[in-house]
């Protein structure tokens, strides 16, 4: 066999092996996602309901880990979310929408917000370093909030902003172990630009789908209402006992009477059982637009750290120049105005330079941790986005099927009971 053929054969074997590993990795991701979803479906944590007190609305957090329930206002959720963003810069935080200028107690708005906050707590629970953070310990504790002496927002805002050294130590202890054993890819400037473009294109498409879905959802509501009206008409027909004019033995033709409310209950059950699949898609689209925007914001914060690093390095160079000038007996005019004693001024420059060097060292380490973090996390994020779309289409098909079955079952019951 020729040497070239041997090389081609070896290359083919390597490619087969690589494909096998990627398929195995994909299966592991799917399995992990399924296990996480099942874990969440089991009721570990969720937003189960909301209550409108008249003055404000509270969202009720329940689940196994809560051991009961917690009531939180949207303003408390938002303060918690903002503090997470402040103390975990450059890290993806499951998002919630911005606060509105005026309170909105419309039922549709409250249901949408409940859906979003439910996604927020569920996704947060999947990320151990965020769910076990100081911020989360306050927010999810029964020692804070309504009915206690500890205000959630004030308690969260008391948590001080981290210095760069503290951010690095936090990332080193909590984020690095999260991906240390995972497969990482290179995440350079080219990949960063590609991710931003991908997100922008995805959001543009979702916004187009959102408008289409809104119209389809409205059309579907009309169809569901018409179905319910058809059944209501049948119920009214039975109540009026029109069939008496056909056959005096009405018991054979109708099952609605004062003792048997089977038909009425069947109509109630039918109405409850009917779902609008386009509402499900609409909720998913709105949530994904928010999540993609949040990922883009996190990536921008990560990228800005490179500019910040250059600025700090420039500040250090400037301080070194000033120190050299002082050693040579030179002194800037502005420096002379602020501090006339050369020794004190030198001490100040040295102290500033030392702090800048600590910040620069910490920032370089933070950037490296985030680079490794995104080399793993960004690909998982997009994979799960794709799997989420598959789940959505399955749910859509299941909902359509559910509606057809409910409709068919009702008329079958009517037919059998005659």
Descriptive report:
- It is a single chain.
- The chain has 418 residues and is mainly alpha-helical.
- It folds into three domains: 1-40; 43-161, PX Domain (2-Layer Sandwich); 214-416.
- The chain has 13 helices and three strands; from the N terminus they run αβββαααααααααααα.
- It has helices spanning 3-41, 74-87, 107-125, 128-131, 134-139, 152-157, 164-174, 176-179, 189-240, 262-273, 277-327, 333-338, 342-416, and strands at residues 46-52, 57-63, 68-73.
- It has a three-stranded antiparallel β-sheet with strand order 1-2-3.
- Helix 10 (262-273) packs antiparallel against helix 13.
- The radius of gyration is 31 Å and the shape is extended.
- It starts with a helix and ends with a helix.
Highlighted features:
PX Domain, mainly alpha, three-stranded antiparallel beta sheet, 418 residues, 3 domains, 5% strand
Can you give me a brief rundown of this structure?
By secondary structure, this protein is mainly α. It has 13 helices and 3 strands; from the N terminus they run H-E-E-E-H-H-H-H-H-H-H-H-H-H-H-H. Helix 7 packs across helix 13 (342-416) and helix 9 (189-240) packs antiparallel against helix 11 (277-327).
């Amino acid at each position: 066999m020729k040497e070239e053929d041997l090389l081609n054969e070896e290359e083919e074997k390597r490619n087969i092996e690589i494909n096998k590993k990627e398929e195995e990795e994909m299966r592991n991701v799917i399995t992990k996602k399924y296990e996480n979803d099942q874990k969440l479906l089991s009721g570990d944590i969720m937003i189960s309901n909301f209550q409108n007190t008249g003055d404000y609305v509270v969202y009720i957090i329940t689940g196994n880990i809560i051991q009961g329930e917690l009531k939180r206002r949207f303003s408390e959720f938002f303060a918690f979310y903002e503090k997470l963003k402040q103390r975990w810069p450059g890290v993806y935080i499951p998002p919630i929408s911005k606060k509105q200028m005026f309170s909105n107690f419309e039922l549709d708005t409250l249901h949408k917000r409940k859906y979003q906050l439910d996604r927020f707590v569920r996704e947060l629970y999947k990320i151990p370093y965020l769910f076990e953070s100081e911020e989360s310990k306050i927010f999810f504790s029964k020692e804070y909030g309504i009915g206690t002496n500890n205000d959630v927002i004030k308690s969260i805002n008391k948590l001080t902003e981290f210095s760069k050294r503290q951010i690095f130590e936090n990332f080193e202890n909590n984020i690095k172990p999260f991906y240390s054993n995972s497969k990482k890819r290179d995440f350079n400037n080219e990949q960063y630009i590609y991710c931003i473009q991908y997100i922008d294109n995805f959001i543009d498409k979702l916004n187009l789908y959102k408008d289409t879905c809104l119209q389809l959802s409205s059309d579907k509501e009309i169809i569901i209402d018409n179905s319910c009206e058809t059944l209501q008409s049948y119920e009214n027909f039975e109540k009026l006992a029109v069939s008496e004019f056909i056959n005096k033995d009405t018991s054979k033709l109708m099952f609605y009477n004062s003792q048997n409310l089977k038909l009425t209950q069947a109509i109630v059950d039918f109405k409850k059982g009917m779902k609008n699949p386009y509402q499900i898609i609409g909720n998913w689209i709105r949530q994904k637009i928010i999540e993609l925007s949040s990922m883009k914001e996190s990536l921008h914060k990560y990228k800005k750290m490179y500019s910040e690093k250059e600025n700090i390095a420039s500040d250090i160079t400037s301080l070194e120049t000033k120190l050299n000038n002082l050693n040579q007996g030179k002194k800037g005019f502005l420096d002379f105005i602020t501090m006339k004693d050369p020794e004190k001024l030198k001490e100040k420059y040295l102290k500033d330079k030392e702090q800048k060097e600590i910040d620069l060292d910490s920032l370089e380490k933070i950037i490296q941790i985030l680079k490794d973090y995104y080399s793993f996390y960004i690909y998982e994020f997009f994979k799960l986005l794709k799997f989420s779309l598959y789940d959505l289409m399955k749910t859509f098909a299941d909902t359509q099927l559910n509606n057809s079955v409910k409709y068919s079952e009702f008329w079958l019951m009517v037919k059998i009971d005659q």
